[in-house]
Amino acid sequence: MVNQITSSHSTLRSSDSTQTDRVAKQQPVAAVAKVVEKKSKQEQQHSAANGKNRSLLVQTSQAHQQAAQAQSAQKALQDASDMLGQMRQLARRSLNVQEGKKDQLQQSLHQLKNKLTKLTREARYEGEPVLHHDLSPRLSGEQPKEEFSFKGMRLNTMRKQDEILRFQFDSGTPSSVRIRIDNDENNHEIAEKFNQALAPRSIQVDIDKYGDLAFSIPKAQWPEVKQGVWMSGGGQILPSGNPIKAKLEQRDKTAIEPQDLEFGKPQSTRKALADIERMMQKVQQSLAHISKVQRQVSQDLEKLVATNMMKSGVMNDDGVIEASWLEAPNNVSLQLLDNAVPTLLAQANASRHNVVALLEP
């Protein structure tokens, strides 16, 4: 209607300006405002519906991603378990075989060790690792910590002067950290200074039950720290002089990495056998955890359906997918319904027939 007014106005002669004003004043302006207001409300409702659809799509996509990631980690751990079983068998044989036949077994053990180490580093889902260095699963939404300490740090000695501590990292950024400790600061104040200085390296610092500094870092970043840290001080908390390489001690004494297994001598082979047993137990615990995660994802998705969220804006009364679902976020398509959703629901023993029943009013 507004367009009609403008068009009529443009065709009037300049001498009819009075008539133009009269025509403009006679137009139902209030009616136009009501139409615009009504249209605005419809747009808001449509936008809200699309927002709900997008939210549902995002949740469904996230569930699919989480389940697929867990499945990739599960497959990698099953392969790791098979390799560990072979290593255990070969290591036992190497302890009882004659000297002349040990070389071939040693070669096979090192090949398996390298293969397992490679699996730990390279097992991925969509370019992201699915295992940590110690064969624990690396799943979205989970941020396990690696707790450690710096051996040789003397926190509880008498301090007569201020001290500047320096940490130099072989890998990652920032490459160096500097901390100034006043001689009259207590352990909690020192821990807070460490915490602030090491925060850019994602290292958290606290005081343990013995009054010593306790360090922790996300497991994903532990390999960077483990590669090497050099430290120096003023001779009170840390030795003075040239930097010395820090000796890092993990709080979890059972944490073992495949690359640390050694089979060169009978003594190291026996230790490796004990480590392999612990690693196999840890892998089984990880597989049980993944199964729990998969069940939870399936249950969450089933609840999503059961609350009738899918019925609004996803399927019409005839069971046909609404066109509004075509306005999906990036990397999400309608194929998700045909592939990912039924697969996830199947884990929760929810068939396509049961889903339809859930959607019925």
**Regarding CATH, which class of one domain?**
Mainly Alpha
Give the overall form: flat
**CATH fold assignment of one domain:** f41 fragment of flagellin, N-terminal domain
Spans of at least 5 consecutive residues whose pLDDT stays below 50 are: 1-36, 323-338, 347-352, 355-361
Overall helicity: 40-55%
Question: How widely separated are the two ends?
Answer: 42 Å
Report the sheet with the most strands, covering strand number, pairing sense and barrel closure: 4 strands, antiparallel
Strand order in the largest sheet: 6-7-3-10
Taking all residues together, what is the mean pLDDT? Answer: 78
Structural class per helix/strand content? alpha+beta
What proportion of the residues form beta strands (DSSP E)? Answer: 5-15%
| Count of beta strands | 10
Rg, nearest Å:
33 Å
List its salient traits.
single chain, 361 residues, f41 fragment of flagellin, N-terminal domain, Immunoglobulin-like, four-stranded antiparallel sheet, 10 helices, 53% helix, coiled coil, Flagellin
What does this structure look like?
With 361 residues, the chain is of the alpha+beta class. Among the domains are: 56-136 and 256-296, f41 fragment of flagellin, N-terminal domain (Up-down Bundle), CATH 1.20.1330; 145-250, Sandwich (Immunoglobulin-like), CATH 2.60.40. Helix content is 53%, strand content 12%. It is built from 10 helices and 10 strands. It has helices at residues 2-11, 17-26, 29-96, 99-122, 187-198, 222-226, 266-306, 335-338, 340-347, 352-359; strands spanning 124-125, 128-129, 145-151, 163-169, 176-181, 204-207, 213-218, 229-232, 244-245, 247-250. The strands form 3 sheets. A 4-stranded antiparallel sheet has the order 6-7-3-10. The chain has a 4-stranded antiparallel sheet with strand order 5-4-8-9. Strand 6 (204-207) and strand 7 (213-218) form a beta hairpin. Helix 3 (29-96) packs antiparallel against helix 7 (266-306). The longest helix is centred in the N-terminal third of the chain and has 68 residues, at 29-96. The protein starts with a helix and ends with a helix.
